[in-house]
What does this fold into?
Amino acid sequence: MNRRTRILLPLALAGSLALAACGGNDTGQEPADSDKLRVATSTTVYADLVQQIGGDTIEVSPVIDSPAQDPHSYEATSRDKLSLSKAQLVVANGGGYDAFMDVLAQDLELPDSAVINAVDTSPVAHEDEGEHEGHERAESEHEGHNRAEAEHEGHDHEDGHTGEAEGADAHAGHDHAAYNEHIWYDLESIRLLTDEIATRLGTLRPVDAESYKNNAAALNDELRGLESRVAALQGPLESTAFAMTEPVPFHLLEDAGMTDATPEGLSESIEGGGEISPQALNEMEKLFSNDAIDVLAYNTQTESPQTERVRALAEAAQVPVIDFTETLPANTTYVSWMDTNIRALEALTS
It folds into this structure.
């Protein structure tokens, strides 16, 4: 073997190994048992759940990795796209919350088997969609009945006009009752999601499938413990009214038996980055002053001068304020984070 041959052979071998390594990282393909599974998630919430289930057999990368980032307004980067392209599994919230993940998945043409959207396994999402469809059917039947009456009466334009206005008002109300996509604040939804994550990881890495199943079961035991504590609050907090600067913790507060008294459109305006109307602010101030709101749920992650004003109104009326975040605070797990949130609610009963 001459010198030229001795040099080229190792180079060719190195090139073959590099190509093999690249091929092993294609989304949806099973890696070698000695390699870690690569998982990309939209936020640290889902990254923690995946890590708890996958343990040291996975490498998880959240796109939103700081409490200072707002998932609603986040725009994906080329680095994010590269991260998803190397992942065997992608976990997102779905429901329009982390729309940047949908864009990335479509651009990369990821197969459905490589993507988990948490809303797809959430009973809350399906229940709310069913209720919304039921309202729409009822509205359609009601409008049909009104039309039949108008044709029968023939000349009562004033009554017919009033019926149309009432129908429009009813429809506007349904627009505001749109389904709340922040399902990670619903413990049952997360418990069902952990099973789905374990199943998908096990499919990608059968040798560790049983371990993933056991880890998910252990996590679910902790989640059931949290669910029991929330259920125990339904009696003591049944008559407690809350307002939110954003609809992030809604599911947890509702599961605890509390009633939403937030002025219509206020939390949605804040979440969408819009201005709170003077009417909504005035209504909020009156509700605080008249003791119609017992607690303010405050999203510290998207704080602004307007939300600070709402908080100041609550504090001036001596209404308790509970801080919530959209993603995991630093150095916490999902379970410990929810434990802290539930403790804050439990403190309202003392």
In short: The CA atoms of residues 31 and 257 lie 46 Å apart.
